[in-house]
Each structure stands twice: as C-alpha cells, then as structure tokens.
Amino acid sequence: MFIPIAMVVGYSVMDNVIVNKHPQFIGFDSYIKVLTNSVLPTAVMNTAVFTVVSVIAHLVLGLLFAMMLNTKLLSNVTTGLFRVIYILPWLFTVAIIAILWKLLLNPNGVINYALISLGLTDKGIEWLSSPATALIAVTFINIWAGYPFYMVSLLAGLQGIPKDLYEAAKVDGASGFQQFWSITLPQLKPIIISMSMLDVIWTSQQFALIWMTTGGGPINVTEMLSTFTYKLAFSNYQFSQASASAVMILVLSTILAFFYARYQKARD
C-alpha cells in the first residue's frame, strides 16, 4: 500500500513523469497548476453537492425502509418480499447499474415513454446529456444504488433496541413521534454517525458510476474530483498534475478517515 502512495507523491513533485524520459524535480509547481485550474472549482462544487445530497438521501430512505420492514403491521411474507426488493440495488455491480440506468434514462427509454404517456412532457428528455439534468440524474442513480447499505444496518439497529423502552414510553403516554425522537433516534445515533462518515468518504471518491454514465460531462456539469484527476492523467497526459491532485484527495480522505477512526475509538 505504501509503495504506490510514495511513488505518486514522488511523481507529483517531478516534471511530468512517464511521458518525460528525464523528469526533473519541480517542487510544488504541479500543485499550483492544479489549484489554479479553472475546472477544479467546478469539480469541488459538484463533488460536494453530489456527496451531501447522496448521504442525506441514503440516510432518510434507509431509515424509512428499515422502519417499514421492522413494523409488525406487515405479515412475514410481505416483509420478506420487500426485503428482497429493497436490497436488489446492492446486488448489482457499478457497471450493471450504469448500463441499466443509461437504458432507462435514454431519450427513447422507459422513463421518458412513461412521462410522455402521462402528458408530463411532449418529447424525450436527455437526462444524462443535458446540463440541466445530468447532475441530478447521476445523483439519483447513486442514491438508488446506495440506500440498501443504510437500510440493512439500520434494520439491524432497530431490531436491537430493547422493547422495554417502548413499553415504558407507552405507559408514560408518549406518542409515536415522541417514541421515535426520544428512543429510536438516540439508540440509532452511533450507527447513523458511523455510516454517514463512511458514506461521505465513499461517495466523495465515486468514479466508476460517473465515468460510465456521463464521463464528467456535459461541459463539466458532472465533473467530480475523481474524474478531474483521471482526465488530467489519461486525457491530458499531465501525470504530474494528476498525481498532485491525487495526493490532495488522499489528504482530504485521510482527514475524514481520522475523524471516523477517532469517533469509533471514542465509541468503543
């Protein structure tokens, strides 16, 4: 693990390694060029929006579905059926998810056909090719693919909450919302914080889904830090700048990982 990291750090302070036969030490010039790149602010903003919206939606959907599956109002057969349906997105690889949604969101795809049939639009929408909808579309796809992780974890947490707490709350006259606010959420808080911190790290580094659906386009509307770094290396052949960008992302990820590890240690 440390050898490739050290090599990339070394690349970042050299004059365009790999394509340059005799690279020279240039210090932090590559970092300066990356920081002054006009595309970087867009990539940072897109990554922030993509990550924040995805994490919040993952949490809300995961909690809603977990509570639904944990309720006694549904029969065992119905609950089992919904468990299978809700966990399906988790079974697909990123490649399958990307292909599936590219077909569904195609101008001639099922979703546009349904919208046209309902009279909500008069022509097919270019969901992944339009600057107005591309970021929304890839964010939605990521939400769809990621909520089962929360659902399964929160369902396990819900099933571990002692029933005595709810019975005592009912005796005290607490409403359903009061029980949720004063018992369910505090009991789930450690799980929610742990999953959210992990999800921020994973989502901010999402590459395959973005690359296979929009490639960071159109006109940088879905450009993320991951695709920005990839293009520096394999589209522009600026391997030193790509290495510098990778090192900066590594530092940010390390900071997030530090807080996660610190929280886990405090929790233990």
Automatic annotation (TrEMBL):
It comes from the Bacteria. The keyword Cell cycle does not apply. Its main location: membrane. It is found in: Cell membrane. It holds the Pfam family BPD_transp_1. InterPro entries: MetI-like, MetI-like_sf. One of its GO terms (biological process) is transmembrane transport. Residues 44-260 form the ABC transmembrane type-1 domain. It is a multi-pass membrane protein. GO terms for cellular component: plasma membrane. The chain crosses the membrane at residues 48-69, 81-104, 124-145, 200-219, 239-261. The keyword Cell membrane applies. Belongs to the binding-protein-dependent transport system permease family. PANTHER family: BLR7065 PROTEIN, SPERMIDINE_PUTRESCINE TRANSPORT SYSTEM PERMEASE PROTEIN. This is Sugar ABC transporter permease. It comes from Lacisediminihabitans profunda.
